[in-house]
Write a structure and sequence with these properties.
The complex is a heterodimer. Chain A has eight helices and nine strands. Chain A is α/β, with parallel strands linked by helices. A six-stranded mixed sheet of chain A has the order 5-6-7-3-8-9, with helices on both faces. Chain A has a three-stranded antiparallel sheet with strand order 2-1-4, covered by helices on one side. Chain A is globular, with a radius of gyration of 18 Å. The two termini of chain A are 17 Å apart. The chains are: A alpha/beta, B mainly alpha.
Chain lengths: 240, 203
C-alpha cells in the first residue's frame, strides 16, 4: 500500500469500513483480504479491468456478499441489514439501458420510490424535483428507451437520486457517453448534495476530482490516498 | 420499450385501473362468447368501434385512427385466422370468428392505451394482495409482470443488434448463429436488470 494511506478509522467512525474482506464469484477470488477505512465524501476507485473495482462497488451496495472478513457500510452489515442498506445506498451502472424498468421517464423515476409507499402528492413532488434537477422535466412523458445515451444516464441518475441516498455508488457511469454528457453526469455525481460518492472509473481526470482514491489490482487494494498520488502509482504500474 | 399509453382525459382514462381491467375483461369475454354468425361479427365490430369512440384517445378521428392502427398491427393474425377457417368452416364462421378474435384483442388493447404501466402495476399488486395470506408475494408478482411486459421490446432490440453484428461480419442469416449470441445477450441483460432492480430496492 502507498505511503498516502490514511490512519485506520474505527468502524463506527468510517462510512466505509472493511476488515480482511474477501469476495468469491464462482471459482474466482474477486476481492482478497481488503481492509479499508474511508470517510471522504467522494472516493474514486481505479484499476485495470478485472482488478476487483466493480465487485467492490457491488459489495458496497449489498449486491454481492463477502465470503470472509467484516464489512460495515454506513455502519450497516450488508448481509444482515441488506434491505436497510439498499434504502440508503443508490447505484448507477455503466449501461443505462439495463437500469430502465418503466416505459416512460416519469414512471421510471417513480419506480425507485415504490418501496417507500408514498402518497400520490408526495410521489409527484419528489419525481418532479428529480426530473427538474437532471433537466428531464420536458421529457417526462417520453418513452424511456427512446432517449439518447446521455439522457438515459441522466434518467438513471434521477432514479438513483430521487431516493435521497446517503451513498451513491457509480460503476463507470460515463463509459458510453460523449464528452459533453460525461461532463454533465460527472458534475451531477460530484456536486455536494448531501450524499457520499464512490466512483468506479477508468477516467483518471475524473478520478482526480475526488477527495480520495483507491487503486485495486488483482482483487487487492494496492494504494489509498490523495488521487494525484494514487494515480501516479497506477500510471507507474501501467508503464512497467 | 413498450409505451402504448396515450395521454388523454376520456372516460377510460379517468376510470381507475382495477375497475377498468374488470370492465374490459367482461366486454372481451362477452365478445368471445358470441355465436359464430353474421350478426355476431357485426356486434363484435360495433363493440370495438363504440369502445374506441368513447375512450377519448384524442387522435383527431374519435378513436378511429387508433383503432385502424391496432387492426393493421393484427393484419397477419387476421389473414391466417380467416384463411384457415375459410377452407374448413365456410365464410360465415370464418368472418365471425375472425371478427370476434380481432375485436377481443383490440378491446384488450384499450387497457394499455388508456392506463399507465405504473397504474397497472399498482392495480395488479392490489388485486393479488389477498393471496399474500397464502405466502404469495403480490409485490414481486406485480413487478415480474411489469418487467416481462416492458422487456419484450428490449429483446427485440437485442435481436436486431445480433442480426446487425452477423451482417457486419458477413455471416449468412441462420437460426444456429442467431440463437446462441441472442441467448447470451438476453441472459446478460437479465442479470444486469436483476441487479438494477435489487439496487432500486426491489426484493
Amino acid at each position: 500500500m502507498t505511503g498516502a494511506t490514511p490512519a485506520p478509522l474505527p468502524a463506527a467512525a468510517a462510512a466505509l469500513w472493511l476488515d480482511g474482506v474477501g469476495v468469491r464469484l464462482g471459482q474466482v477470488d474477486a476481492l482478497r483480504d481488503v481492509s479499508l477505512a474511508l470517510d471522504a465524501r467522494t472516493i474514486a476507485v481505479v484499476g485495470e479491468n478485472g482488478s476487483g473495482k466493480s465487485t467492490f462497488a457491488r459489495l458496497l451496495a449489498g449486491l454481492v456478499a463477502p465470503a470472509t472478513g467484516v464489512t460495515r457500510i454506513l455502519g450497516l452489515d450488508p448481509v444482515r441489514q441488506a434491505t436497510e442498506l439498499r434504502r440508503r445506498v443508490a447505484v448507477v451502472f455503466s449501461n443505462p439501458d439495463a437500469q430502465i424498468v418503466m416505459p416512460t421517464v416519469a414512471e421510471d423515476v417513480a419506480f425507485s420510490l415504490r418501496p417507500e409507499r408514498l402518497s400520490r402528492e408526495e410521489l409527484r413532488r419528489r419525481v418532479d424535483a428529480a426530473l427538474e434537477r437532471f433537466g428531464l422535466s420536458d421529457l417526462r412523458e417520453r418513452s424511456s428507451h427512446d432517449l439518447s445515451g446521455g439522457q438515459k444516464q441522466l434518467l438513471a441518475l434521477a432514479g438513483a437520486f430521487v431516493r435521497e441516498p446517503e451513498l451513491v455508488v457509480a460503476d463507470e457511469p460515463t463509459t458510453y457517453l460523449d464528452a459533453r454528457n460525461a461532463r454533465r453526469v460527472s458534475d451531477h455525481l460530484l456536486a455536494d448534495a448531501g450524499h457520499r460518492l464512490v466512483l468506479v472509473t477508468h477516467d483518471l481526470a475524473l478520478a482526480e476530482r475526488c477527495e480520495t482514491a483507491v487503486l485495486f489490482a488483482g482483487g487487492r487494494v494496492e494504494a489509498v490516498g490523495r488521487p494525484a498520488e494514487v494515480i501516479a502509482e497506477y500510471e507507474a504500474a501501467l508503464a512497467c | 420499450m413498450l409505451s402504448l399509453y396515450r395521454p388523454g382525459a376520456g372516460l377510460l382514462h379517468r376510470l381507475p385501473a382495477g375497475p377498468k381491467l374488470l370492465l374490459l375483461l367482461a366486454v372481451v369475454l362477452a365478445v368471445s362468447l358470441l355465436p359464430s354468425t353474421w350478426w355476431a361479427a357485426a356486434v363484435a365490430a360495433g363493440a370495438a368501434i363504440v369502445a374506441y369512440a368513447v375512450a377519448g384517445l384524442r387522435d383527431g378521428m374519435l378513436g378511429m385512427r387508433e383503432l385502424g392502427r391496432q387492426v393493421v398491427a393484427l393484419r397477419w393474425l387476421i389473414v391466417v385466422t380467416i384463411a384457415a377457417q375459410l377452407i374448413f368452416l365456410g365464410p360465415e364462421q370464418a368472418v365471425s370468428n375472425t371478427a370476434r378474435v380481432t375485436a377481443a384483442v383490440v378491446l384488450a388493447g384499450l387497457l394499455v392505451l388508456t392506463t399507465r404501466v405504473s397504474d397497472l402495476l399498482d392495480a395488479v399488486e392490489r388485486g393479488l394482495r389477498p393471496l399474500d395470506r397464502l405466502r404469495f408475494d403480490s409485490e414481486r408478482a406485480a413487478v415480474l409482470l411489469t418487467v416481462a411486459l416492458t422487456t419484450v421490446p428490449v429483446l427485440g432490440r437485442l435481436a436486431g443488434e445480433v442480426r446487425e453484428a452477423q451482417r457486419a461480419r458477413g455471416a449468412r442469416p441462420g437460426l444456429r448463429f442467431f440463437a446462441v449470441p441472442f441467448l447470451i445477450l438476453s441472459l446478460k441483460h437479465a442479470d444486469q436488470l436483476g441487479e438494477a432492480l435489487s439496487a432500486r430496492g426491489v426484493r
